[in-house]
Design a protein that fits this description.
This protein has three helices and four strands. It is of the alpha+beta class. The longest helix has 7 residues.
Length: 94
């Protein structure tokens, strides 16, 4: 996916939940003595999320003291890939 502002963020005019750091904000760049390997800033960018739904099945956990034990099945029921900014916008806080 192309970098920059996502189309979902442009349409809904939402802000990202991730903090964007600049060189001035990075404490490693404020130090005068930097080694050559630490001159490059390291960051992680989350662009999309994959949501997988699994079936709920009757399990075999012997530690269950009341009711039927349940477990997740191995086969994926549904899989969705979404833009993380749209997911955070749509998600309701509990």
């Amino acid at each position: 996916m192309a970098r920059g502002r996502s189309p979902i963020r442009q349409v809904y005019n939402i802000k990202s939940c991730m903090k964007q750091t600049t060189v001035d904000d990075d404490p490693a760049t404020k130090k005068k003595s930097l080694s050559s390997s630490s001159q490059y800033s390291k960051k992680v960018i989350f662009d999309e999320i994959m949501i997988r739904e699994y079936p709920i099945k009757i399990g075999d956990n012997p530690a269950v003291s009341a009711g039927v034990p349940i477990t997740l099945g191995w086969k994926v029921k549904d899989e969705t890939i979404e833009d993380i900014d749209f997911f955070e916008y749509r998600r309701q806080p509990e």
